[in-house]
Design goal:
It is a single chain. The protein has 257 residues and is an alpha/beta fold. The protein contains twelve helices and four strands, in the order H-H-E-H-E-H-H-H-H-H-H-E-H-E-H-H. Strands 1-2-3-4 form a four-stranded parallel beta sheet, sandwiched between helices. Helix 3 links the parallel strand 1 and strand 2. The chain starts with 13 loop residues before the first helix and ends with a helix.
Length: 257
Protein backbone atom coordinates (compact mmCIF):
# COMPACT_ATOMS: atom_id res chain seq x y z
CA UNK A 1 0.00 0.00 0.00
CA UNK A 2 1.68 3.19 -1.20
CA UNK A 3 0.30 6.42 0.22
CA UNK A 4 0.20 9.82 -1.43
CA UNK A 5 2.41 12.81 -0.88
CA UNK A 6 5.33 12.68 -1.26
CA UNK A 7 6.23 13.51 2.32
CA UNK A 8 2.97 12.30 3.89
CA UNK A 9 2.22 9.16 5.92
CA UNK A 10 0.01 6.11 5.61
CA UNK A 11 -2.42 6.72 8.51
CA UNK A 12 -4.99 8.70 6.55
CA UNK A 13 -5.53 5.82 4.11
CA UNK A 14 -5.95 3.07 6.66
CA UNK A 15 -9.60 3.73 7.66
CA UNK A 16 -10.73 3.19 4.05
CA UNK A 17 -8.18 0.97 2.30
CA UNK A 18 -7.80 -1.06 5.48
CA UNK A 19 -11.13 -2.71 4.66
CA UNK A 20 -9.25 -4.88 2.17
CA UNK A 21 -7.56 -6.62 5.10
CA UNK A 22 -10.58 -8.91 5.48
CA UNK A 23 -9.42 -10.68 2.31
CA UNK A 24 -5.79 -9.73 1.70
CA UNK A 25 -2.68 -9.21 3.78
CA UNK A 26 -1.81 -5.52 3.59
CA UNK A 27 1.56 -3.89 4.17
CA UNK A 28 1.46 -0.18 5.04
CA UNK A 29 4.52 1.97 5.72
CA UNK A 30 5.50 5.61 5.97
CA UNK A 31 7.67 6.59 3.02
CA UNK A 32 11.02 8.25 3.54
CA UNK A 33 10.76 11.80 4.85
CA UNK A 34 7.16 11.54 6.12
CA UNK A 35 5.26 10.32 9.16
CA UNK A 36 7.44 8.08 11.33
CA UNK A 37 10.11 7.77 8.63
CA UNK A 38 11.76 11.12 9.29
CA UNK A 39 15.24 11.81 7.94
CA UNK A 40 17.86 14.37 8.92
CA UNK A 41 18.09 15.88 5.43
CA UNK A 42 14.61 15.79 3.87
CA UNK A 43 15.73 18.20 1.16
CA UNK A 44 17.87 15.40 -0.29
CA UNK A 45 15.11 12.80 -0.66
CA UNK A 46 14.61 11.71 -4.27
CA UNK A 47 12.48 9.24 -6.17
CA UNK A 48 15.32 6.73 -6.33
CA UNK A 49 15.41 6.69 -2.51
CA UNK A 50 11.72 5.78 -2.43
CA UNK A 51 12.25 2.98 -4.94
CA UNK A 52 15.28 1.65 -3.06
CA UNK A 53 13.34 1.71 0.21
CA UNK A 54 10.47 -0.27 -1.29
CA UNK A 55 12.85 -2.90 -2.64
CA UNK A 56 14.47 -3.20 0.81
CA UNK A 57 11.04 -3.70 2.37
CA UNK A 58 10.13 -6.35 -0.20
CA UNK A 59 13.21 -8.30 0.82
CA UNK A 60 12.51 -7.80 4.54
CA UNK A 61 8.92 -8.99 4.11
CA UNK A 62 10.19 -11.94 2.03
CA UNK A 63 7.70 -11.31 -0.79
CA UNK A 64 8.79 -12.60 -4.18
CA UNK A 65 6.35 -10.52 -6.24
CA UNK A 66 4.55 -7.50 -4.89
CA UNK A 67 0.97 -6.54 -5.65
CA UNK A 68 1.25 -2.77 -5.40
CA UNK A 69 -1.72 -0.53 -4.68
CA UNK A 70 -0.70 3.13 -5.00
CA UNK A 71 -2.83 6.17 -4.34
CA UNK A 72 -2.03 9.55 -5.95
CA UNK A 73 1.75 10.01 -5.68
CA UNK A 74 1.84 6.39 -4.48
CA UNK A 75 0.55 5.37 -7.91
CA UNK A 76 3.48 7.08 -9.58
CA UNK A 77 5.86 5.49 -7.06
CA UNK A 78 4.42 2.07 -7.99
CA UNK A 79 5.20 2.80 -11.65
CA UNK A 80 8.72 3.99 -10.85
CA UNK A 81 9.38 0.84 -8.84
CA UNK A 82 7.90 -1.45 -11.49
CA UNK A 83 10.05 0.19 -14.16
CA UNK A 84 13.18 -0.52 -12.09
CA UNK A 85 12.20 -3.98 -10.81
CA UNK A 86 9.65 -5.43 -13.25
CA UNK A 87 10.34 -8.99 -12.17
CA UNK A 88 9.39 -8.20 -8.58
CA UNK A 89 5.87 -6.95 -9.33
CA UNK A 90 2.88 -9.22 -9.92
CA UNK A 91 0.25 -6.52 -10.50
CA UNK A 92 -0.45 -2.80 -10.11
CA UNK A 93 -3.54 -0.99 -8.84
CA UNK A 94 -3.25 2.75 -9.45
CA UNK A 95 -5.89 4.91 -7.77
CA UNK A 96 -5.92 8.52 -9.01
CA UNK A 97 -2.23 8.22 -9.95
CA UNK A 98 -0.06 11.34 -10.07
CA UNK A 99 1.34 12.25 -13.46
CA UNK A 100 4.82 11.13 -14.45
CA UNK A 101 5.43 13.19 -17.60
CA UNK A 102 3.99 15.89 -19.83
CA UNK A 103 2.29 19.02 -18.53
CA UNK A 104 -0.31 17.11 -16.52
CA UNK A 105 1.26 17.90 -13.13
CA UNK A 106 1.27 21.62 -13.93
CA UNK A 107 -2.34 21.43 -15.06
CA UNK A 108 -3.24 19.62 -11.84
CA UNK A 109 -1.68 22.33 -9.67
CA UNK A 110 -3.46 25.06 -11.59
CA UNK A 111 -6.84 23.32 -11.36
CA UNK A 112 -6.41 22.49 -7.68
CA UNK A 113 -5.59 26.12 -6.97
CA UNK A 114 -8.60 27.30 -8.95
CA UNK A 115 -10.91 24.99 -7.00
CA UNK A 116 -9.49 26.22 -3.73
CA UNK A 117 -10.50 29.75 -4.72
CA UNK A 118 -14.02 28.76 -5.76
CA UNK A 119 -16.99 30.64 -4.32
CA UNK A 120 -18.29 27.61 -2.42
CA UNK A 121 -14.94 27.11 -0.67
CA UNK A 122 -14.61 30.83 0.08
CA UNK A 123 -18.05 30.75 1.71
CA UNK A 124 -17.10 27.69 3.78
CA UNK A 125 -13.99 29.51 5.01
CA UNK A 126 -16.05 32.54 6.03
CA UNK A 127 -18.51 30.33 7.89
CA UNK A 128 -15.67 28.65 9.78
CA UNK A 129 -14.05 31.94 10.79
CA UNK A 130 -17.36 33.30 12.12
CA UNK A 131 -18.36 30.05 13.85
CA UNK A 132 -16.43 30.73 17.05
CA UNK A 133 -14.70 27.34 16.86
CA UNK A 134 -11.29 28.97 16.93
CA UNK A 135 -11.85 29.77 20.61
CA UNK A 136 -14.53 27.26 21.69
CA UNK A 137 -12.93 24.15 20.15
CA UNK A 138 -9.39 24.81 18.83
CA UNK A 139 -8.68 21.17 17.81
CA UNK A 140 -11.88 21.01 15.73
CA UNK A 141 -11.12 24.43 14.25
CA UNK A 142 -7.67 23.20 13.21
CA UNK A 143 -9.17 20.10 11.63
CA UNK A 144 -11.72 22.18 9.72
CA UNK A 145 -8.92 24.42 8.45
CA UNK A 146 -7.17 21.32 7.14
CA UNK A 147 -10.40 20.03 5.57
CA UNK A 148 -10.82 23.27 3.65
CA UNK A 149 -7.22 23.14 2.45
CA UNK A 150 -7.98 19.87 0.63
CA UNK A 151 -11.48 20.78 -0.60
CA UNK A 152 -10.16 21.04 -4.16
CA UNK A 153 -9.58 17.29 -4.20
CA UNK A 154 -13.31 16.59 -3.91
CA UNK A 155 -16.11 16.74 -6.45
CA UNK A 156 -18.31 18.27 -3.73
CA UNK A 157 -16.21 20.61 -1.51
CA UNK A 158 -18.39 19.89 1.53
CA UNK A 159 -17.28 16.24 1.42
CA UNK A 160 -13.84 17.45 2.49
CA UNK A 161 -15.17 17.70 6.05
CA UNK A 162 -14.96 13.89 6.22
CA UNK A 163 -11.32 13.86 5.15
CA UNK A 164 -8.73 12.29 7.45
CA UNK A 165 -6.03 14.76 8.46
CA UNK A 166 -2.40 14.26 7.52
CA UNK A 167 0.85 16.21 7.61
CA UNK A 168 3.19 16.70 4.66
CA UNK A 169 6.94 17.25 5.06
CA UNK A 170 7.30 19.96 2.43
CA UNK A 171 11.06 19.66 1.97
CA UNK A 172 10.79 15.94 1.25
CA UNK A 173 7.86 16.56 -1.07
CA UNK A 174 9.57 19.31 -3.05
CA UNK A 175 12.86 17.39 -3.26
CA UNK A 176 11.13 14.27 -4.57
CA UNK A 177 9.28 16.17 -7.30
CA UNK A 178 12.47 18.03 -8.22
CA UNK A 179 14.33 14.73 -8.60
CA UNK A 180 11.80 13.63 -11.22
CA UNK A 181 12.48 16.52 -13.59
CA UNK A 182 13.58 15.20 -16.94
CA UNK A 183 12.90 11.57 -16.03
CA UNK A 184 9.49 11.40 -17.73
CA UNK A 185 10.64 10.28 -21.21
CA UNK A 186 12.75 7.45 -19.79
CA UNK A 187 9.92 6.31 -17.51
CA UNK A 188 7.45 6.35 -20.39
CA UNK A 189 9.81 4.34 -22.57
CA UNK A 190 10.30 1.70 -19.87
CA UNK A 191 6.59 1.39 -19.15
CA UNK A 192 5.89 0.55 -22.80
CA UNK A 193 7.59 -2.81 -22.26
CA UNK A 194 6.05 -3.54 -18.86
CA UNK A 195 4.09 -6.80 -19.04
CA UNK A 196 2.38 -6.35 -15.66
CA UNK A 197 -1.42 -6.49 -15.23
CA UNK A 198 -2.54 -3.00 -14.22
CA UNK A 199 -5.82 -1.52 -13.05
CA UNK A 200 -6.12 2.27 -13.23
CA UNK A 201 -9.00 3.97 -11.42
CA UNK A 202 -9.48 7.68 -12.05
CA UNK A 203 -12.27 10.06 -11.12
CA UNK A 204 -14.01 11.90 -13.93
CA UNK A 205 -13.70 15.13 -11.91
CA UNK A 206 -10.15 14.65 -10.61
CA UNK A 207 -8.02 17.83 -10.79
CA UNK A 208 -5.38 15.52 -12.26
CA UNK A 209 -6.51 15.49 -15.91
CA UNK A 210 -8.31 12.35 -17.04
CA UNK A 211 -6.21 12.64 -20.20
CA UNK A 212 -3.21 11.59 -18.09
CA UNK A 213 -4.89 8.35 -16.99
CA UNK A 214 -5.98 7.70 -20.56
CA UNK A 215 -2.46 8.20 -21.90
CA UNK A 216 -1.02 6.02 -19.14
CA UNK A 217 -3.47 3.24 -20.01
CA UNK A 218 -2.41 3.48 -23.65
CA UNK A 219 1.28 3.27 -22.77
CA UNK A 220 1.04 0.25 -20.44
CA UNK A 221 0.65 -2.95 -22.51
CA UNK A 222 -1.60 -4.78 -20.01
CA UNK A 223 -3.74 -2.05 -18.46
CA UNK A 224 -7.44 -1.38 -17.93
CA UNK A 225 -8.79 2.08 -17.10
CA UNK A 226 -11.95 2.48 -15.02
CA UNK A 227 -13.39 6.01 -14.95
CA UNK A 228 -15.32 6.74 -11.76
CA UNK A 229 -18.07 9.11 -12.83
CA UNK A 230 -18.93 10.51 -9.39
CA UNK A 231 -15.43 11.04 -8.03
CA UNK A 232 -12.68 13.61 -8.09
CA UNK A 233 -9.32 12.79 -6.46
CA UNK A 234 -10.67 10.91 -3.44
CA UNK A 235 -12.68 7.95 -4.83
CA UNK A 236 -12.13 5.90 -1.67
CA UNK A 237 -14.27 8.53 0.08
CA UNK A 238 -16.53 9.63 -2.78
CA UNK A 239 -17.33 6.34 -4.49
CA UNK A 240 -16.03 3.60 -2.14
CA UNK A 241 -18.41 0.78 -3.10
CA UNK A 242 -17.57 1.01 -6.81
CA UNK A 243 -13.86 1.52 -6.14
CA UNK A 244 -13.44 -1.44 -3.83
CA UNK A 245 -15.63 -3.68 -5.98
CA UNK A 246 -13.24 -3.05 -8.86
CA UNK A 247 -10.13 -3.43 -6.72
CA UNK A 248 -11.27 -6.68 -5.09
CA UNK A 249 -12.24 -8.22 -8.42
CA UNK A 250 -8.88 -7.34 -9.96
CA UNK A 251 -6.85 -8.60 -6.98
CA UNK A 252 -8.80 -11.86 -6.89
CA UNK A 253 -7.93 -12.42 -10.54
CA UNK A 254 -4.23 -11.92 -9.80
CA UNK A 255 -4.12 -14.11 -6.69
CA UNK A 256 -6.09 -16.96 -8.26
CA UNK A 257 -3.77 -17.31 -11.25
Amino acid sequence: MLHGGPGAQHDYLFPTFGRLADEFRLHFYDQRGGGRSQVSEPHKVGWRDHVTDLEALRKKWEIDRLLLLGYSWGGLLALLYAAEYPGNVGALVLVAPAAGWGDYHRRFKEEFGRRGRAEAVRRMREELETSGLKHSDPPLYKRRRFNLSVAGYYMNPEDAYSSETFVVQLQAQQATWASLRGHGPELKSRLRGLQIPTLILHGRHDPIPLAWAEELASVLPVARLVVLENSAHVPHMEEPERLFWEVRGFLREQTET
